[in-house]
Amino acid sequence: MKKETVKERIEFLRTLLNEANYDYYVLAQSKLTDQEFDKYLRELEVLELENPEFDSPNSPTKKVGGEVIDRFKKVKHKIPMLSLPDVFSLEEIEDFNKRVLKENVEPIYVCEYKIDGLSVSLHYEKGQLVYAATRGDGVVGEDITHNVKTIKSVPLVLKKPIDIEVRGEIYMEKKVLEEINEKRKQEKLPLLQNVRNAAAGSIRQLDSKVAAERKLNTWIYHLPNPEDYGLKTHEEALKFMSDLGLKVNTHANRVVYGIHEIESYIEEIASKRSELPYEIDGVVIKVNALKAQKELGFTSKYPKWAVAYKFPAEEVLTKLLGIEFTVGRTGRITPNAVLEPVIVMGSTVKRATLHNEDYVLSKELKIGDIVSIRKAGDVIPEVVEAKKNRRVGDEENFVMICTCPICGSVLEKKKDQVDHYCMNRSCPARKIEGLIHFCSRKAMNIDGLGIEIMEDFFNLGFVKTITDIYHLDEHKKDLIELEGYGTKSVDNLLSAIEDSKHNSLERLIFGLGIGGIGDKTALMLVKKFQNIDNMISASFEDYKNIKDIGAILASNLFDYFQDVDHLQLIHDLKELGLNMKYLGESSKENELITGRKFVLTGALSFIDRDRLSEIIDSYGGVTSTSVSKKTDVVIVGENPGSKYEKAKELKIEIWEEAYIKEILIGLGEL
To answer: What is the reported pTM?
Structure first.
């Protein structure tokens, strides 16, 4: 067969098989029999093997799996993947609806199933799948393309040669989990406990054959930039994605009008939840009009135009066998319930946090009680109450400990606080927690140094301090010989450690565990100071004069950088080659913007509100979502709503659209 003819045959078979996959896995209909599909797939495999010059990463043959990667690469999302705010009652949904109405937005919504799975972002160029990524921390995810390509409902080629990013959920059907567990039971392997964990674990396999065998599926439900395609509603965006050949849950999604139709939808879905072939843990409610979504805007974590209603958590009874105490990185002591193992919402629960002494006493818990357990938000197990009528008389009263369970130091409880603390900075438990925090996702993000591994390395003497992490390469031979490790896993770990040296400074500041300094505050600080030397030389007043930094945080920061041991740690990390600078946009200044707090309201005709917020931030201004006496300027566009009225009431400076446009032109930002 001539090369031209071979190429044509390969392209014909790819098109035929891609269409067959779409018909079967998206439309639930089949134009080819299984025998025909297998025959054509085998023919294509042979032709591609014999003619490697015609290989394509998006061939249907790639869906069978087999690609093995060394580790997951990081992917920065062009548009952040924000999560949705959870609500747990109809009253909270009514509050959401009231907030929408208050902004003069028409209460037309799209209700969707909240699929119990793993969020995914799919990127196509000219209609070809180029990569897929997890949510990660919302800003940076992991490249999981090799596994996503094995999912039959994900088209490798769209119906139009378009550049687009879409988002959705990877999930596993109930019957698939049952089949997998039946096989694992026969092989005497641990069972997969629920579809969410099974899907997440499958998609994070380095060998794509494992993912292919797990028969994962997808629903696509979000287009991050719908206006770029001339769309005006979320409903239109869903249809647009469906027409491209993506699997959209069209039979479940519904446009509703007002709070009563939302509640009717929830009631209907809750009644048939158990009949669905996949797990859902709630209902997502989104404002339909895209213009209205833009007007409502975002908080730092969530869109304000959508909420996720979570079905009431399932409660089960079990026995409180004991209460154990753990020590956190700050020395905080936490009592934890040790429970008779019980399955809650599909997973086995053996422990639950009891937060602090006051929490246990307020619940009147006794060791030996029969207690009710539920998963708060279907995720975190919590003890709801003791069943006092089930007591038999031999239950034991709870007594708060006086000394640290690890080092024996006397605990302290500060005035007006509920928590007890171990004040010994050399306490092994505090050190381990601090090391785990340093390596965590929002801090230095070192893959492979999770809780169990860090505890092992600490107990084996490999890692006792933060600097020891960066000397692990000196123990490579010893690590490879440990049970459960090997050359590849150790190489991946050492590579991840080396990569972390190039992180921007805010990750290190958060990772150091300075009291009260979260990841957002760390970013704000490094944007202002630009490098760690400036932070070390800053005075208490320098910190205290920063907006949103009160006296307590200022004291924590100043004291940290005055401590000789902390300064030695920073010096050692510098010597090891860790970056000590903010790698984001260089700070710029403008007397109208720098150091001032802004609120944006209404639609601006010449610029996207998110882009305007970025510009304000880059000049050292701060954008907020609510108007208060601390607000310096309110920028108003068309239909500004209640924020405009409040600004006038508080006599806050107001900038019209023409004025801010003039400023931005003068700065060269337009």
So the answer is: 0.55
Kind and range of the H or E run holding 91: helix 90-102
CA distances from 40 to 12, 297, 523 (A): 10, 49, 54
Handedness of CA 180, 181, 187, 191 (dihedral sign): positive
Confidence at 205, pLDDT banded by 50, 70, 90: confident
What is the SS3 assignment for 179-197?
HHHHHHHHCCCCCCCCHHH
Q: Is 533 helix (H, G, I), strand (E, B) or coil?
A: helix
Token pair of 433 as six digits? 């927690």
Which of 176, 489, 499, 112 has the alpha carbon at shortest distance from 306?
112
CB 464 within 8 A of CB 431: yes
Beta strands 633-636; 597-601: pairing state: parallel
Strand partners, 112: 284
Q: Which amino acid is residue 109, in one-letter code?
A: Y
Report how far residue 104's alpha carbon sits from residue 565's, in angstroms, rounded to the nearest whole number.
Answer: 56
Length of the chain: 670
pLDDT band, residue 69 (cuts 50/70/90): low
Per DSSP, the three-state class of 567 is: helix
CA 19 vs CA 152, 158, 217, 220: distances in Å:
11, 10, 17, 18
Q: Is 414 noted as a catalytic residue in this protein?
A: no
Q: For residue range 310-369, what is the model confidence (pLDDT) as tens digits? A: 887 667 889 999 999 988 888 889 999 999 888 776 567 888 889 899 999 999 999 999
Tokens of 120: 């995914």
Task: Report residue 193 as tokens.
Answer: 């406990």
> Distance between CA atoms of 254 and 372, rounded to whole angstroms?
36
Q: Catalytic: which of 114, 304, 431, 527?
A: 114
178-199: pLDDT as tens digits: 999 999 889 888 787 788 888 8
Q: How confident is the model at residue 24 (pLDDT cuts 50, 70, 90)?
A: low
Largest CA distance in the chain: 88
How many CA atoms does the CB half-sphere of 283 hold within 13 Å?
28
Please write the tens of the pLDDT for every residue from 355-410. 899 999 999 999 999 999 887 654 568 898 999 988 999 999 999 999 999 899 99
Confidence of residue 235 (pLDDT cuts 50, 70, 90): very high
Q: Contact at 8 Å (CB) between 26 and 152?
A: no
Q: 3-state DSSP call for residue 132?
A: strand
Q: Which residue has the higher pLDDT, 204 or 154?
A: 154
Give the pLDDT score at 30: 66
Q: Which structure tokens are listed for 201?
A: 């674990």
CA distance 529 to 549: 14
What is the rounded CA–CA span in Å between residue 580 and residue 217?
43
Round to whole Å and give the CA distance between 273 and 179: 21
560 and 596 Cβ atoms separated by less than 8 Å = no
Q: How many whole angstroms from its chain centre is CA 593?
A: 32
Q: How many CB atoms lie within 10 A of CB 496?
A: 19
Output DSSP code: residue 403.
B
- Tell me, rounded to whole angstroms, the distance of Cα 379 from its chain centroid: 14
pLDDT of residue 51: 87
How would you classify residue 611: left for phi > 0, otherwise alpha for psi between -120 and 50, otherwise beta? Answer: alpha
